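Hello everyone,

My group is preparing for a crystallization screen and wants a predicted model to guide construct design. The compound we'll soak is pyridoxal-5'-phosphate. Before spending weeks at the bench, it would help to have a computed complex in hand. I've included the protein sequence and the ligand's SMILES below. Output in structure-token form would be ideal because that's what our pipeline reads.
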Amino acid sequence: MNGAHPVDEWLGRAADRHGTPCFVYFTAPIEARLNHLGRAFGGRFKLSYAVKANPNPALLAWLGTKVPLIDISSIGEMRLALSAGWAASRISFTGPAKREAELAEAIAMGIGELVIESPREAAAANAIARSTGRRQDVVIRITPDRVPRGFGDHMAGRPSPFGIDVEQTDAALPPILAMQNLNVRGFHIYSGTQCLHADAVVENYRNFIALFERLAERHGLTPDRLIFGSGLGIPYHEGDVPIDLDAVAAGIVPGLDALRASPRFARARFALELGRYLVGEAGYFVTRVVSVKQSRGSRIVLCDGGMNNHLPASGMFGMVIRRAYRMHKVGGGGDVEKVDLVGPLCTSIDRLGSGVDLPRLEPGDLVAVHNSGAYGLSASPVHFISHPMPTELMVDGEVLRAVSRDWTSCHQPALERTESHAAA
Ligand SMILES: Cc1ncc(COP(=O)(O)O)c(C=O)c1O
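Reply:
Good plan to model first. Here are the tokens for the complex, ready for your pipeline.
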């Protein structure tokens, strides 16, 4: 593409006013996604936003008014969600190695549900709940023995640190169900992510449903909470075809309705847990060209931001084949040529693309990397080589504002903050 992109005016304004590198998040595409998800599934799923995708506090606050549930995977994420205004009762807590201090803080803050990933964790949560005189709501994370082909990353179907393997449930579940201070409300499955194939996602959800039914029956449970890990992917690279959400819905709605029709599941809340599909395509990473070097037949464009700000875009975040994210020259213009786009770090792995086709770039030009609203800044080694933190900006309607995060709320226990506010 060598013309201007529809968001270029905003990106140019963001870079000129707030400097580069920066991340710019747009709320309009997230809103459109939310509407599409609501329409496609006809309200059968409540959405649960996975904070790990993007924990920016302003984004969390905005999502708090649009999405009913939120999933955290560390106590730091819980603190961020609470400071962004989320009630603890709307929060669930996944993560395979939760520490006792994290469980204790989450329980003390009144977390909505713990996602139990092991017998050890169940015992620890039970003991903490008992010591504080509570009965804690939990769901049990099940790890299926298969994941259909087509997912970018698997958390199941092979040896896995996550959840309780389905083969182990006969032994593991009865003692957890007998724990006096845990109230087992249902099951959670997150088995694969970044899938662009509707058929594979549908098959995966069908596996979930079959497992939910089998386990509920076998253990005499009437679950009222079932969490489906969405697995919905986004088209990161040129040539990727977006997933057909309506085809996913058409494939799975009959299964959801059949499940709902069975008395055991009549009262169950179905939640869809997702991150990148909601926010990934709503964000851009904007970096400015610092210099250009012609080297041994390659045109190398050196930018002020790279893998230190955006590790996934450099292909170093679990990608088997390094392929450049979709990107464009802000404002377009110039003949398209092949360039290697690199960041400012003194390492050859700091590379946003090799042989990418972009309109001619000169120092001062801006490049926008797409799909940067999820797993961008917070998934990156920002301290490596000590460049200043990039700014984060949000475009909400016609308003552009700086929303860089303040990490202190992530490091200070929520209870202490509440107490110091009360004392002040
Ligand atoms: C337990 C769990 N929930 C939610 C997510 C979010 O996944 P995605 O951003 O692909 O929707 C992940 C991703 O790894 C996960 O492990």
